[in-house]
Amino acid sequence: MSDNPKKNLILIGMPGAGKSTVGVILAKKTARGFIDTDLLIQTSRKKSLQRIVDEQGHERLREIEEEILLSIDVQNHVIATGGSAVYSEPAMQHLKKGGSLIFLDVPFRELVKRVGDYRDRGIAKPKEQSFADLFEERSRLYKKQADFTIQCDGLTPEMICQQCCRVAQD
Q: pTM for the full model?
C-alpha cells in the first residue's frame, strides 16, 4: 500500500464532510486501525459533544479536543478528527509527526444538505457565528494544515477512499 505502512492517515474537514464514514472504509481497505476523535471525546467525558458545548461552552470543547489529540500515540491508523481540530496548532503538529493530514474538501451547499440542523451537532463554534462564516474560517485552516486535499464534490465515500489511498502511497 504505502512505502511506510506505519504511517497514519489523518482526515480533517468540516462536520458532515464524511471523515468518519470514509475513515472506516479506508481503515478496512488499508488494514489500519480506526480512531474517531469525536467518539474519544464523548467516551472520555461520558457526554455528547452538544452537551459539552451546552454545559461548558465551545472553547472548552476545543480544549478537550486538543487534549485528546495530543494523547494519540499510534501507528498504522486512520484518524477521523473533529471539525475543530485545526484550531490547535500543537495538535496538528503532533498528528503530522505520525502521518499525513488529508483534507476532505466538501462544498458548502453539500455540507448544508448533509448536516441539516447544525445546532444539535455539537459543533465547537460561538453561538452567534453562522455555519457559513464557520465554513469560511475553517476552510482556510484546513487548507493551511493539509498535506493533501481531496475535492469531494460528487464523489461517493468509496471514491474518496480511493483518492486517499493514492495520496497515502506518496
A: 0.93
